[in-house]
Amino acid sequence: MPVTQEELEAVIRAAIQVTYVNVEDNSGGCGEKYAVLIVSKDFEGKTTLARHRMVNEVLKTQIAQIHAFTQKTLTPQQWEDSQKASNATS
Amino acid sequence: MFRHISRLPLAALTRGSPRATSSVLRRLLSSEARAHIQNAIDASPLVLFMKGTPDLPQCGFSRAVIQVLDLHGVPPEKMRTYNVLEDPELRNGIKEFSEWPTVPQLYVKSEFIGGCDIVLGMHQSGELEDLLEKHSIIPKADEEAAARATSS
Question: Which one of B117, B124, B127, B131 would you mutate to disrupt binding with A, by most A Cβ within 10 Å of its Cβ?
Fold first, then answer.
C-alpha cells in the first residue's frame, strides 16, 4: 500500500498545528519519494534537529514505508522572512 | 572494520531470547550492539553512516553529505564512514541508536548532528563550518589566513 500525498498531509495536520504545509511527491507516482515543507509555531524555540525529530515521530509509520523523505521545518516568522527574501530576489 | 566487531553479537541477538515477542526484539537494541555503535562513533572526530562509500555513494542523500564534507576539506584521517548497505544489522541498529529513521547520519565528536536535510541546511547557514572548526576537524578560517600570511 503506497503512502499518498494526502495521507502524509492529513497525518501532519492532525498532529502539528500548521500555518502552511506542502507535500511534494517527487516519485513520479510510485509513492516512494516525498519532500515536505511544514510551517508551524510549534517549532518555535526548537533546534532544527528537534523539529525534524518531531516530524519523524509523527510520520514514523509512513517514513518506514517510503524510500526517500526530505523535510523543511520553519516557524511562521522564518517562513515570512524566506518569502520576503525570495520576493526580493525575483 | 565495523562488520568485524558487530556481526557476531548482533546476529546472536536477533535470533535471541525466545520469550521476547518479535515487536520487543525489534524495539530493543541490545546493550552490546549499542556499545559497538557507540565505540564506532567515539573512534573518530567525524563519523558518517552512509549508503555506499565516499568514492562510490549509492544514494543521492549520502552523496550530498559527502560532497559537503569534501567542500569543507574534512581530512580523511579525521573522518570515518560506515557503509550500512554492507551490514544489515548496522543499517537497522543505527536507526534505533540515533532514533532517526533514515541514512545518512552524521556524528561529530560523538554527538548526533542529523541527516542530509540538516547537514545541507547547516552548510548553507554557515553552522557546519563553525561546528567543524570548533572541534578542530578543519582549521579555523582566520588561523589559516594567518598561517598563509606568515609563510609568505
Answer: B117
